[in-house]
Automatic annotation (TrEMBL):
Residues 401-422 are annotated as: Disordered. Residues 8-340 form the NADH:flavin oxidoreductase/NADH oxidase N-terminal domain. This is NADH:flavin oxidoreductase/NADH oxidase. PANTHER family: NADPH DEHYDROGENASE C23G7.10C-RELATED. Signal peptide: none annotated. The keyword Ligase does not apply. It comes from Micromonospora sicca. It holds the Pfam family Oxidored_FMN.
């Protein structure tokens, strides 16, 4: 029997407390500037949903390397400049009281296409001759009208694993409190998982054990690269909605293996592997799959897909079918969807958390430290206007859990920081 909960009950994953159960699903904006950098558009897009009361903002699919983007306008996290630019997002989201997370992805055969509002949109190939690149896939089977991909060699597979790990470390530097591995919606990891897109005969093809290998390697490398006190999520597909494709019976062993690797939550989706197999319509179409995967793996789950009205959000959580819900298009229509779900009798108004409470001060401080690339061991102190110490702590990483020796922090009000060498 699963536990009933309510939308505004906090949930803790590792050391991160997410203030409520209404979360923003990742939605690619195809609006990055230059080399995968977030822009003002992203700040407003994510900032407004954070202000609108969602507990977790899951930033869109963000490529782990240039050739892993779906379009030239995808966000990226493969270098320090990008990590620095993402800090503007994480710092604002934290300050608004939400938890910033980012989805990491390789597009695989769904790579190098036009932006949705250009030409043929996501079905329009951008070949190398006009500035695109050749997609990488488990097998040379194109997706619809997109370019024929090249079959991944063993060294390509190793590069994918290493790229996910590098991006996870950069996501931490950027101030993200959680990362999600994208293993759904027909992107590279899903392409390896499904026998419809994976015709390999080596150790990455054939049996389910082989087809799961890449996803498990990636999940393990991300878990190892991301701090132990922050959660790792995986977006898994429960079914391909296609004959001979993945079914929930195949998703169960994957969910169990992910649990064994230390993954903290499954984001449960389905479909989008092939252009010809659209998912059925219907409210909450992945909720029952989420329940099955939770029962089998013991992991918390957050289903996504057509959970677009308040009564359904409340029902899913009250029935104990899920630990949180991910909302996509309803949040595009209404950034304040989460606030509207609150008891209408309560007067709730969005505002910055800075200086409001000890906890909010802590969140702002950590993001300030990360934004300023403070080294591990840096001590922060926050004092109220009366000079009283509100909070003192130190910045640690996976490798620096020992408390540094204390350093006196002077001054009245605001934030002070000093670096203590151990
Ligand atoms: C504009 C748009 C962009 C999307 N981009 C992503 C993405 O970057 N990563 C992903 O996993 N899903 C993406 N999705 C799928 C959503 O996260 C979500 O799974 C889907 O919209 C179903 O949920 P909904 O019915 O609440 O919208 C996108 C959906 C939309 C509408």
């Amino acid at each position: 029997m699963l536990n009933a909960t309510s939308a505004f009950e906090p949930i803790r994953l590792r050391d991160i407390t997410i203030p409520n159960r209404i979360w923003m699903s990742p939605m690619c904006q195809y609006s990055a500037s230059g080399d995968g950098l977030p822009t003002d558009w992203h700040l407003v897009h994510y900032g407004s949903r954070a202000v609108g009361g969602v507990g977790l903002v899951l930033v869109e699919s963000t490529a782990v390397g240039p050739r892993h983007r779906s379009t030239a306008a995808d966000l990226g996290l493969w270098n320090k400049e990008q990590a620095g630019a993402h800090r503007r997002l994480t710092s604002f989201i934290l300050d608004a009281g939400a938890v910033p997370a980012v989805q990491l992805q390789c597009a695989g055969r769904k790579s190098s296409h036009q932006r949705p509002w250009e030409g043929k949109g996501q079905n329009g190939a951008v070949p190398p001759a006009v500035g695109g690149w050749t997609p990488l896939a488990p097998s040379a089977i194109p997706f619809g009208d997109l370019s024929e991909p090249c079959e991944a060699m063993p060294e390509d597979i190793d590069e994918v694993v290493a790229a996910f790990a590098r991006s996870a470390a950069l996501a931490h530097e950027a101030g993200y409190q959680a990362v999600e591995v994208h293993a759904g919606h027909g992107y590279l990891l899903h392409q390896f998982l499904s026998p419809l897109s994976n015709h390999r005969t080596d150790e990455y093809g054939g049996s389910l054990e082989n087809r799961m290998r890449l996803t498990l390697r990636v999940a393990q490398s991300v878990r190892e690269a991301f701090p132990a006190d922050k959660p790792v999520l995986v977006r898994v597909t429960a079914t391909d909605w296609a004959p001979e494709g993945i079914t929930v019976e195949e998703a169960v062993p994957l969910a169990k293996e992910l649990a064994a690797l230390g993954v903290d939550l499954l984001d449960v989706t389905s479909g989008a592997l092939q252009p010809a197999s659209p998912p059925p319509t219907g409210d909450g179409l992945n909720v029952a799959f989420g329940r099955t995967l939770r029962e089998a793996s013991g992991l918390p789950v957050a289903p996504v897909g057509r959970i677009s009205h308040h009564a359904l959000v409340d029902d899913v959580l009250a029935r104990g079918d899920a630990d949180a819900v991910l909302i996509g298009r309803a949040l595009l229509r209404d950034p304040y969807f989460a606030l509207r779900n609150r008891d209408a009798g309560k007067s709730v108004w969005p505002r910055s958390t800075t200086g409001r409470s000890r906890k909010a001060a802590a969140a702002s401080c950590w993001s300030w430290l990360l934004a300023n690339s403070a080294p591990p061991g840096t001590i922060i102190a926050v004092k109220g206007a009366d000079g009283k110490l509100l909070l003192q702590g130190w910045l640690r990483t996976r490798r620096s859990h020992r408390r540094p020796r204390p350093v006196p922090v002077r001054g009245r009000g605001g934030l002070a920081a000093a670096t203590a060498r151990r």
